[in-house]
Amino acid sequence: MNNRCADYPVLPVFTRRWSPRAFDPRPLPQEKLFSLFEAARWAPSSMNIQPWCFAYALRDDVHWDDFLSTLLPGNQLWVKNASALVFIMSDTMSDYHGEPKPSRSHSFDAGAAWMSLALQAQSMGLATHAMAGVDWDAARNILHAPERLQIEAAIAIGYPGNKDDLPEALQERETPSDRRPVAESAFNGPLI
Ligand SMILES: Cc1cc2nc3c(=O)[nH]c(=O)nc-3n(C[C@H](O)[C@H](O)[C@H](O)COP(=O)(O)O)c2cc1C
């Protein structure tokens, strides 16, 4: 529960989800992480191509330090207490009658998968925090990701932690943010 207030009625999952930085550094069982990937699996995508894929590290596995090292220092500061670090990637090409063709919707589709993952996590008492503060070249190298894949974001996943354990500057920001009003994003007819 938090202080967010919707202007129009919506399911509580939307306002309850937010991106904390305070994590309790407990191990996350792999099956729980796979429930999150399962939720992502059912996201809609253009032609049902499902252009997303994930690469993950759990905090107690051999990949953790490498994955963490690809984040910009400001993110490493708090992600070190997360339980899993996931990269979501999308295929920039789709196979169209056997011919690879640039995909128009790979990022849009991957975005739907990320949101499904985030909402599933929240329903399981887990917090998620997406990041673009990544050294993309380092990430591509560590992940062995071919150029055809776009690395969309890194996602920290973990158990909510204690705000007081964060560095002071981050403690001030550790609160759910607000949004601009719907009327500033939704237009009846052409854009103004
Ligand atoms: C693609 C993407 C990239 C982001 N990059 C970062 C980041 O590098 N570091 C960070 O602390 N937060 C990052 N965020 C978190 C956003 O700042 C956050 O989602 C936004 O302020 C809305 O807040 P909320 O998720 O708590 O509702 C990112 C979020 C998204 C979706």
- Secondary structure: helix percent: 25-40%
Per CATH, the architecture of one domain is 3-Layer(aba) Sandwich
Uncertain segments: none
- Amount of beta strand: 15-25%
Mean of residue pLDDT? 97
Top-tier CATH class of one domain = Alpha Beta
Distance between the termini: 36 Å
What's the number of helices? Answer: 7
Order of helices and strands: HEHEHHEEEHEHEH
What structural class do you assign from the helix and strand content? alpha+beta
The hetero compounds bound to this protein are:
flavin mononucleotide
Number of strands: 7
Instruction: Spell out the CATH superfamily of one domain.
Output: NADH Oxidase
CATH fold category name of one domain? NADH Oxidase
Radius of gyration: 18 Å
Biggest sheet record:
5 strands, antiparallel
- The general outline is globular
